Amino acid sequence: MTPPAPAPSAAGVRRLVLDTDVAMGAPGSDIDDGFAIALAVADPALRLELVTTVDGNTDVDSATALAVELLHRLGHGEVPVVRGAAGPLADPWRPRERAADVLERFGHRRPVPGRAAEALVRHITASPGEITLVAIGPLTNVATAMLLEPRIARDVREIVVMGGYFTGHQGNVRVPGEFNIWADPEAARIVLRSGARLRFVGLDVTYQVRMSRDQAARLASHGGDFGRFAGECGLAWIETLRHRYPGSATRDSFHLHDPLAVAAVTHPELIGWRRAHVAVATDGVARGITVADLLGTRDAPEPNCEIADTVDVPAFLDLFLRRVGAL
Length: 327
Prior knowledge:
Domain Inosine/uridine-preferring nucleoside hydrolase: 17-318
Largest sheet: 9 strands, mixed
Structural class: alpha/beta
InterPro entries: Inosine/uridine_hydrolase_dom (IPR001910), IUNH (IPR023186), Ribo_hydro-like (IPR036452)
CATH class: Alpha Beta
Organism: Streptomyces radicis
Number of strands: 11
GO molecular function: purine nucleosidase activity
Strand content: 15-25%
Radius of gyration: 18 Å
Number of domains: 1
Keywords: Glycosidase, Hydrolase
């Protein structure tokens, strides 16, 4: 049974931990994790206290170096970054090509010693009911933390996941599920069965939220120091997508998947939610696909999460561009 929603904190500020496979800053790599980190530090109603990294969009060493670099660029170098899992639970030793030149360019700043799963356990259990965890990469670190200390499922305030695809499908036999779930479906299954309060922001809604070339160009020319950097990264990512998907009708824009999950913490009104029981396939041709029972039958299973089903796109884009443009 999904626990009830927690009451707002007295101070009105949500304590946040972000688990990410950030690749922003590596040439030709996805950038929305970096935008999510920026939104997390730009929102005055959030206090980012810890960042953990995981293999996903890039290898975990590159993600760690990039997370440290981005936080320094944002003026929040005091936020600890802890390196996490180098691969998925069921196949941790699969080869992963390191992002070109990342460690040579950004590896001079060191993360905090330790392991991400242990850091998650310590941080969450030290303040029961106070920590919100936003997971915007594969769920390997989160599942490992739950295996180390199952009570974090009770102690965490809530877990917001950018992951899943609940009313559609990828149309890609090589990656049939949404990437974060597909990359480690065993970890996703552990999280879904944990009993933690879960909200999933899936591709159903994130595919609706895009930054256009014109918006990225305005950031690049009129934003603050980070805003200009973010706009330039956005324009470069659009060019990468144009070459990667030459037939796409939306090639002059890119999705803002991960920032929407961060916005869901302090602005849940931007998103429509519905209770569901979600399971994930872990083998066969459907590996990584999420299946949502929307509880419409008399003998429906107990809900284990809430899933996003609508989004106010103009309101979110206005919020995002104002916050990140001011950095």
